[in-house]
Write a structure and sequence with these properties.
This protein is an alpha/beta fold. The protein has two domains: about 230 residues, Acetylglutamate kinase-like (Carbamate kinase), CATH 3.40.1160; about 140 residues, VC0802-like. The strands form three sheets. Strands 3-4-2-1-7-9-10-8 form an eight-stranded mixed β-sheet, with helices on both faces. α2 runs parallel beside α4, α7 packs across α8 and α13 crosses α14. The longest helix is centred in the N-terminal third of the chain and has 25 residues. The protein is globular, with a radius of gyration of 23 Å. It starts with a strand and ends in a 6-residue tail after the last helix. The model has no long low-confidence stretch (mean pLDDT about 95). Bound molecules: adenosine-5'-diphosphate, aspartic acid and magnesium ion. The site of magnesium ion has 3 residues, from loops.
């Protein structure tokens, strides 16, 4: 049994869904379980229209609902023509659009939005796509069956970034999905969405369909997890920024995990953990280029000094200075307890004799954090920073990576530098607008032909 996940562009129009069906058909003998994202752009549109409605702009929000409806109806028309159950599926999807419109109206009346209601709207992207894809697969002769992911992916009630409950997921996957697979049926589920024990809809956070795939893979003891997307695999940098980025045929779990955490959007950062726990290889493939060998993520990929460069922007830097306190026992603990209390994770840390600096990528609780941190010392906040990470399992073994990286960055203003204790991640914090140039400079240093690795 394998889990096969298709991202938004891989099911974004009728042709793409046909290509996805071909992929699934080609894996029929391996008993695929399919996970799909929302059609590309739909989740962003849903989140935007929910916000818009809550600000009282109902007409604009309803226009977006109609845009979503039209797009899905068009795909139904093309893919389900002549299928006996096609009209029912189209009607079901249309009814979901009516439901989105009702939710938008309710939000406009209330005049405000909560994380819970955002999830209630956002879930429709995957609800619609999974239903449509199931029916389109049937039209291509695949015995597919839709399974509502909210009945399988049990999560906490931490809306917008819910934490999965692996034991409950395993029980439900064994009860509901495994029997389908045993009878030769291809279950199709929407990624990204889940529900609490009591059935309230949640989501796993943006890009979370990859995570759904690995949660299901681990729950079902899959042989492989395949992530089908719009690039040939994991590359040495984001190809949208570095045009000559190269394919990485094999990469280790820990490196892939670091890259995902530091901005390589091709994989959701949480995808690796469930796969690692069960030792399940994760593959990344291109739906437009299915014969390309892709990337294989496992424990035993070859060690390289530098494997890839990743970056993420919109990072906030917080510096706490407490000249008299820093060396006192328990000071750092007090600082990190405050971040924990506000459920804010910290990415890069550096300390000096008199200060500690950290970066946050989620600054939504910054105001409360600053109030508490001020009890410990002077606090300064710098926004619009970016983290650029150089990842490679041999960085720690080689002494020259840091020097080469800083030389390559030349005049770029570097605010923080940090080498992870495991020696696989060297991060620098730069100004937001310098992020892409920094990536290109570092990529040229470590990956141009003939450069030492
Ligand atoms: P999907 O909708 O299939 O989940 P995403 O947009 O989430 O696709 O992820 C694929 C995108 O990730 C690529 O188009 C690419 O721009 C970006 N990306 C960022 N870093 C990398 C990297 N190191 N290797 C490959 N793709 C990357
Ligand atoms: N549809 C969701 C998003 O756009 C989840 C995903 O695509 O993985 O964030
Ligand atoms: Mg994605």
């Amino acid at each position: 049994m394998i889990v096969v996940k298709f991202g938004g562009t891989s099911i974004g129009d009728a042709d793409a869904i046909r290509r996805a069906a071909d992929v699934v058909a080609s894996r029929a003998r391996r008993s695929p379980v399919v996970v799909v994202s929302a059609a590309s752009g739909t989740t962003s549109e849903l989140l935007a229209l929910a916000e818009q409605a809550s600000r009282g702009h109902l007409i604009g929000a309803l226009r977006s609902v109609e845009h979503i409806r039209e797009r899905h109806m068009q795909m139904c028309d093309t893919l389900l023509r002549g299928i006996p159950t096609g009209p029912d599926t189209a009607a079901e999807i249309a009814a979901m659009c009516d439901e989105i419109a009702s939710l938008a109206e309710a939000l406009a009346t209330l005049g405000h939005i909560t994380p819970r209601s955002l999830d209630a709207v956002a879930c429709f992207g995957e609800q619609m796509s999974s239903l449509l894809v199931t029916e389109a697969f049937r039209a291509r002769g695949i015995t597919a069956q839709h399974v509502d992911a909210r009945e399988i992916i049990v999560t906490s009630d931490h809306f917008n970034a819910a934490e999965p409950r692996p034991d409950a997921i395993t029980d439900r996957a064994r009860d509901r999905i495994a029997p389908l697979v045993r009878s030769g049926i291809v279950p199709v589920l929407g990624g990204y969405i889940g529900a609490t024990e009591s059935g309230i809809t949640t989501t796993l956070g943006r890009g979370g369909s990859d995570y759904t795939a690995s949660l299901l893979g681990a729950a079902l003891g899959a042989e492989d997890i395949e992530i089908w997307t719009d690039v040939d695999g994991m590359l040495t940098a984001d190809p949208r920024v570095v045009s000559n980025a190269r394919l990485i045929p094999q990469i280790r779990f820990d490196e892939a995990s670091e890259l995902a955490s530091f901005g390589a959007k091709v994989l959701h950062p949480n995808t690796i953990a469930p796969a690692v726990r069960r030792g399940i290889p994760v593959y990344i493939y291109n739906t437009r280029n299915p014969l390309e060998s892709g990337t294989r993520i496992t424990f035993d990929a070859p060690r390289r000094a530098v494997t890839a460069i990743a970056a993420k922007g919109d990072v906030t830097m917080v510096k706490v200075s407490a000249p008299r306190m820093l060396l006192a026992q328990g000071f750092l603990r007090s600082v990190f307890e405050i971040f924990e209390r506000h459920r804010t994770s910290v990415d890069v840390v550096s300390t000096s004799e008199v200060s500690v600096s950290v970066t946050l990528d989620d600054a939504s609780r910054l105001d409360e954090l600053v109030v508490d941190l001020r009890m410990l010392g002077d606090v300064s906040v710098e926004r619009d920073r970016a983290i650029v990470a150089i990842v490679g399992s041999g960085i720690g073994d080689r002494g020259d990576c840091m020097g080469r990286a800083l030389r390559a960055l030349g005049e770029t203003h570097v605010y923080m530098v940090s080498l992870s204790a495991t020696g696989i991640n060297l991060t620098v914090v730069v100004e937001g607008p310098s992020m892409h140039d920094a990536m290109r400079a570092l990529h040229a240093e470590f990956f141009s032909p003939g450069s030492a690795q």
